Amino acid sequence: MQKVLIQTVAALSLLPSAVWAQAQAPSDTERYYGWGPHMMGWGGGWYPMIFGPLFMILFLAVLVALAVALVRWLGGPWPGTYPPHQLPPARTPLDILKERFARGEIDKAEFEDRRRVLGE
Known about the structure:
With 120 residues, the protein is mainly alpha-helical. 61% of the residues lie in helices and 0% in strands. The chain contains five helices and no strands. Helix 4 runs antiparallel to helix 5. It is rod-shaped. The N and C termini lie far apart (135 Å).
């Protein structure tokens, strides 16, 4: 009984080899690619390959944006964000006097008199 059991196990262990030996030989595309003639089983074509360059451009754009943001952050505020050290003077008394003369509120004699009083 034990001998029959050993023979049965030995025959069953050799069965996959016998079935594999009868299998049809793979074609060249199956042998080299494993997924058939098409790349990665996508059905062929070049259209999926556009994602590589697109993601590369996207990655480089994000990298440049991060570098610009870092330089701006480390560089401090722009020169135009601080108020200037000296504000431009507002209208001087002479400017006001000239405006009044131009509008006709005062005549030439009064303009000359007040201009001498201002010291100019």
